[in-house]
Amino acid sequence: MSDVMVKAANVHKSFGHVEVLKGIDLEVKNGEVFCLLGPSGSGKSTFLRCINHLERVTAGRLSVEGELIGYREVGDKLHEMKPKEIAAQRRDIGMVFQRFNLFPHLTALENVMQAPMKIRGVSKAEARTQALALLDRVGLSSRVDNYPGQLSGGQQQRVAIARALAMKPKLMLFDEPTSALDPELVGEVLDVMKDLAREGMTMIVVTHEIGFAREVADTVVFMDGGVVVEAGSPSQVIDNPQHDRTKSFLSKVL
Amino acid sequence: MSVAAPEAIKAVPIRHYGQWATAAVVIVAVGALVWSVGTNDAIQWNVVGDYLFRPEIFHGIGITLALTAFSMVAGIIGGILLAVMRLSGNPVLRTVSTGYLWIFRGTPVLVQLVIWFNLGLVFPAIGIGSLSTSTNDLISPFGAALLALALNEAAYMTEIVRGGILSVDPGQTEAAHALGYSGAKTMRLIVLPQAMRVIVPPTGNEVITMLKTTSLVYAIGAQDLFTEAYNFGSKNFTLFEMYLVACFWYLAMTTILTTLQSRLEKKYAKGSHAVPAGPGFGRVIGKVRMLRSPEGGAR
Ligand SMILES: Nc1ncnc2c1ncn2[C@@H]1O[C@H](COP(=O)(O)OP(=O)(O)OP(=O)(O)O)[C@@H](O)[C@H]1O
Ligand SMILES: [Mg+2]
Q1: How far is B269 from chain A (nearest CA, A)?
Q2: Is the Transport keyword given for this protein (chain B) (predicted)?
Q3: Could you give phi then psi for residue A235, rounded to 5 degrees?
């Protein structure tokens, strides 16, 4: 078994006639923290959403642990997967959204318990124990019975991370997890993510938090106009960028 | 340096002469109407009082309530199915749902009622091979009434449920999909519970409308309140009195339902502008779930 978690080979994505991803090649290794930087509209979210098939790749190959996402390759033909198979693939990939997307009709605890119970078939008692442990881990053991509407943005996002972790994913996708937060709440979410990184979770993080990328990322990728402009370690890409586009972007966000 | 507060304004208020004039006109008009009806020799008021509590009337009320309840339950279930079909990615299901709405909302419910009741005229028997029965045995007046009202209601509920589903943030569906929920589970566990706040208040209105619509089944003699009142009245030459009896009971029932409805509406309107989640909302959904499933009772 190779140590590659995600492999993108010449990945293209078009919405109608608009090509948003124009050939993405990259590899995310097991246990790696992989940060995607880039200006608005460069296709970062779209790429992330392709990884769990919220968007379908229109050309190229995208695989997780060697398994194509959303398609099955038979001979040299691709077959679309059934919804059930796609759901099974998504179970192992956690996703955290910019706008949290917690389920507002469920308490924090229920948000974290529901998917393991209803999707993985875990018993209620077990799901509860696990959810309490996860909420404790993100520092919310005192808010388990609160509804999302009663929590701050930072707290909601931490519940959302716990909710994703409850499915025991092998890969976590973060799409600008702190962009919708008031500045003073950004730190608490980044701290949870740093813990997660330290524990060896494979993470792909779209972020504008350059400090976080520099501190935590193993690989930083700069995207612009649907292509990877530059990739490497944080010290290469952030501190010593080679391309003008990277330089001008960094000068704006730093 | 302090400035003395200015003297409070004591203006002469506008006189609403118009209001007083209209009130006077209304009082006179209503009074005249009540007088002419109340003292009308053609109406035997003592008969109205006597017949208000006849067993036939209570039987009719029972049928009316049963028709309302059953056809609403079936209509709601049908409406949910049709709404989900309408919003699905499957073009066949979408077309079926659209066609259903086209037909059932495009024809009068009275006509639908009569068609279901008279199905035996064109299909004398229903079934396959030896497993067939006479249509007229199968479709009683009550059965035809239920069928017609439920199928018709399903069409109207479809639009209500569809509106509710569309009111839920698409991010909710995405989050559920990202966790590995199937389409059906996303709908049942995530979208529909949240759509409830939009679906429930207009559904209350539908119940009230349905209660009154059931009177149409008198056309096929389904023994509801109005049919019973009519039959009794025509037997005893007290038709008009019996109409008044029916009115009294319909008004009593709709008054109760309207009160319940406005409470329900208030409950669901709470916090509808703010964050899409309040504790109150959660509790309401919690209660709905408790009513639905015994396992939820322990919460
Ligand atoms: N569903 C869609 N239909 C059509 N165009 C889309 C759709 N989703 C995204 N796009 C377009 O694709 C481009 C890339 O969008 P994407 O959201 O991936 O950018 P991004 O890098 O995440 O930007 P941001 O930093 O603003 O989130 C944008 O021009 C956007 O308008
Ligand atoms: Mg984005």
Answers
A1: 15
A2: yes
A3: -65, -30
Provide the pLDDT for residue A234.
96
For residue B35, CA distances in Å to A207, B45, B238 come to 79, 13, 20
The answer on pLDDT for A68 being more than 70 is yes
The tokens describing B111, both together, are 């006509």
Rounded to the nearest integer, the mean pLDDT of chain A is: 95
Q: Nearest CA of chain B to the CA of A198: how many Å? A: 23
- Ligand 1 contacts (CB < 6 A) are A 15, 18, 20, 38, 40-46
Over the stretch B197-211, which tens digit does the pLDDT of each residue have? 899 999 999 999 999
| B287 and chain A in contact, CB less than 8 A | no
Asked whether the predicted pLDDT for residue B231 surpasses 50, the reply is: yes
Ligand nearest to the CA of A221: 1
- pLDDT band of residue B15 (cuts 50, 70, 90) is confident
CB contact under 8 A, A87 and B274: no
Cα A46 to ligand 2 centroid, rounded to whole Å: 7
Report the nearest-CA residue for atom 4 of ligand 1: A15
Q: Do A54 and B177 touch (CB under 8 A)?
A: yes
- Residue of minimum CA distance from atom 30 in ligand 1: A41
- For residue A86, give the chain B residue with the closest CA: B180
Residues B180 and A88: beta-carbon distance below 8 Å? yes
The angle at the Cα of A43, spanning A42 to A45, to the nearest 5 degrees, equals: 125
Q: Give the residue, by CA position, lying nearest to ligand 1 atom 2.
A: A15
The owner of tokens 């049919």 is B227
Ligand 1 atom 29 nearest Cα = A41
Ligand number with the minimum distance to the CA of A24: 1
Q: Are B142 and B114 in contact (CB under 8 A)?
A: no
3-state secondary structure B1-44: CCCCCCCCCCCCCCCCHHHHHHHHHHHHHHHHHHHHHHCCCCCC
Do A120 and B182 contact (CB within 8 A), yes or no?
A: no
Give per-residue pLDDT as tens, B250-275.
Answer: 999 999 999 998 888 787 765 443 33
Candidates B205, B186, B185; CA nearest to B262 is B205
> Predicted ipTM?
0.95
Give the domains, in start order, of chain B with CATH numbers: 44-268 (1.10.3720.10)
Q: What is the pTM of this model?
A: 0.84
CA of A47 to the centre of ligand 1 (A): 10
| pLDDT above 60 (res B291) | no
